[in-house]
Amino acid sequence: MRGKIILFSIICWFCFINVIAAQSSCYKQNRAYGIAFQQLGQFEKAISYLNKAKSCPDKPHDNDLDELIRNCSPHSNEAVKPKTEKNSHTKTSTLTVNGMETSTSVSFTSEGGEELLSLSGNSDSITVMDLPYWCHIINSDHSTLVVRCEKNKSIIAREDWFKIESKDGEVKVYITQHGYPQLEINGRIELISVLPAHTGAINYSINTLTASDYDIPTIPAWCTIDYQAGERFQIRYEANDSSEIREGEIIVISNNQQVSIKLQQLAERQQVNQVDSLVNIVPLRQMGNDSIESNYTGEQLSGIPNGLGFSINEKDIYYGTFVDGKRNGIGIVIIKDPENIYQGNCPLCVYYVGEWTSNKRNGQGTCYDTDGNIIYQGRFIDDHPIMEYPSDTEKEESRKFGYIKYPSGNYYYGETLDGKRSGKGVFYWATGNSWYGTWDNGVRTGEGIYILADGTFETGVWEDDMKIN
Q1: Per the omega criterion (within 30 degrees of 0), is the bond before 390 cis?
Q2: What are the pLDDT digits (tens) for 221-278?
Q3: Where does 298-365 have alpha helices with state H?
């Protein structure tokens, strides 16, 4: 019995010694397997064994497991061979550019500029191959290389690549450069400006960096350039004292791009009595009730204005919405009498576009002066503006209330944006027909009323200048 106990103790001691030995060889064994599979190109197995080595209790504090795992990335073209003292032919360095061994990339804006590339490895003697014509090497040493890219004057982006070579390898550098922004004036590539008959100035914004980035080679004889700054220029125009609208063109050029600004200046004599002539355009009917709208054409309910319509009284002309014979909703008012209450509450206001409640301006509205410029944009309560009057409208210089006459004999009375019908307005055909409603970029969009020369009318919704219901 005593002999059996002794034998059992010897066996246990032997197993314990084997466990200790296995633990002491865990790191070396798994690391060796990882390196072997790495050299065979079987990176997933290599990473598996290297991760096992990281969990071994005998792993030394300073080890190269993380570096070996990084070198096993599937993106590497070749696994890095382990350094050994026995093989003197093993590489001791690899060329890298910005930390990358095979390829890297740099990006430039359309303005061009410089990009610093960091080199590592034995880069004492490097060669740059296949450099694009629009790039140059302006400085290089054993650790850095500076690439300068020229300005891209095209709106089309461009891309290319070049190689950096040394005895330790080669790295491709991919280059991308943004195209120059599309030249825009006031945020547009096409522009029409309608100018009042009297002398004045108009400002334009341009998406360039400095005044030297653009030129204005063409300008009408009746216009001059007041100033030309980096992102803004101002054109001054003379008065048009003739009876005909005159037209002109401003051409702006920058980086082989061109934008044309079409100018239309109203005639001094033509502006006289515009409102008086407007009174006689649309056929009106006498209202047989107590409404302030003594002459009215439009939607009715039991003989009372309800819906979209057009009216004239002794004070003003109104296009808009009615409820129970009163102005309610959104409408345009063109002032006839300079002494009326509207102008009294809003000095110099001749045109009003906005909200109404029970014949009074209530809600959001905009006032324009005789030249069509905004003088107030804000809220009203019972016909009174409740915000600062006049408003700061410098940012709204492109929005006007205009009168535009066309060669065909048609004309438009209403809001414009950069010379195009935009907002609320009335279009008159030479045939005697008219349409009131909302305009967007020159076309009818939204609810409107179409009044024929014989006094009949129809209402509905328009989209892209077509009635859809």
Answers
A1: yes
A2: 999 999 898 788 999 999 887 767 889 999 998 877 889 999 988 775 444 334 444 4
A3: 341-345
Strands 158-166, 169-177: pairing kind: antiparallel
Phi and psi of 2, rounded to 5°? -65, -35
Q: How far apart are CA 429 and CA 128, in angstroms?
A: 70
* Burial classification of residue 229, based on how many CB atoms lie within 10 Å of its CB (0-12 exposed, 13-18 middle, 19 or more buried): exposed
Residues 290 and 341 in one domain: yes
Rounded to whole angstroms, the Cα distance separating 103 from 141 reads 20
Label the pairing between strands 200-205 and 384-385: unpaired
Domain with 112, as residue range(s), is: 96-177
pTM of the full structure: 0.42
Q: Which residue carries 């491709």 as its tokens?
A: 172
Q: Do 293 and 403 reside in the same domain of the chain?
A: yes
Dist. CA 433–CA 330, nearest whole Å: 22
- Give Cα 88 to chain centroid, integer Å: 60
259 phi and psi, to 5 degrees? Answer: -125, 135
Q: Please check whether residues 51 and 104 belong to one and the same domain.
A: no
Q: Which residues of 6-37 are buried (b: 16+ CB within 10 A; e: fewer)?
A: eeeeeeeeeeeeeeeeeeeebbeebbebbbeb
Residue carrying the six token digits 């535009």: 404
Token pair for 357? 């409640």
